[in-house]
Write a structure and sequence with these properties.
By secondary structure, this protein is of the alpha/beta class. 55% of the residues lie in helices and 13% in strands. The chain has a 5-stranded parallel beta sheet with strand order 2-3-1-4-5, sandwiched between helices. It is globular.
């Protein structure tokens, strides 16, 4: 059986990464590939219940450590129920966020450190890492402006992370760039300031070498 391929999309909220993941999934299916799309936090029903706790704006008292543990609880369920079985079947798995998000948001943004993230990754992911990560890059100011405009246009309760300070989001943005510098073979930066179609072309120019 052909080994599966695990591709993740990372970036600031409002970067357009979710749209690009869906577009890539449609393109790959058009080529006859079997594709699983998932999101973090979330994916399977149990993980989606954890997502509601994490992103609900009413839960401002959630501590950084509890936040990190809940993200990895959701991730463990996603890996065990959806991601690992799909890869074992030889499918392509596309994930909107994975462990890199915990590294930059909780490890750096919350100041919990890379070691805490790595320790939980060993338990939840058991060595599973993306084959390719696409970092759709926009700056912190643009991220917050887009996210808040979206939340105003489509009111919902999943705004807790969007409501963090600009300083927090700047730390996250810097951490994403540091990650890309450390792992250039895996993490490929895509210009999120371009138009949707132009970003899609950038994404495909990278992904086509893997499929």
């Amino acid at each position: 059986m052909t080994k599966g391929l695990f591709i993740t999309f990372e970036g600031m909220d409002g970067s357009g990464k979710t749209t690009q993941m869906h577009r890539l999934g449609a393109r790959l299916r058009g080529l006859g590939r079997t594709v699983l799309e998932t999101v973090e936090p979330g994916g399977p029903p149990i993980a989606m219940k954890i997502r509601r706790i994490l992103l609900d704006a009413a839960n401002q008292e959630l501590s950084p450590s509890a936040e990190l543990l809940l993200y990895f609880a959701s991730r463990a369920q996603n890996v065990d129920e959806w991601i690992a079985p799909a890869l074992d079947r030889g499918e392509i798995v596309l994930a909107d966020r994975f462990t890199d998000s915990s590294l930059v948001y909780q490890g750096c943004g919350r100041g919990l450190g890379a070691e805490a993230v790595a320790a939980l990754e060993r338990i939840a992911c058991r060595g599973l890492k993306p084959d390719l990560t696409l970092l759709v890059d926009i700056d912190a100011e643009t991220s917050l402006a887009r996210a808040r405009a979206r939340n105003t246009a489509e009111p919902h309760c999943e705004t807790r992370m969007d409501e963090q300070s600009l300083e927090f989001h700047r730390k996250v943005h810097a951490a994403y760039h540091a990650l890309a510098a450390r792992e250039p073979e895996r993490v490929k930066v895509v210009d999120g300031r371009a138009g949707i179609d132009a970003i899609e072309r950038q994404v495909w120019s990278i992904v086509s070498a893997y499929v």
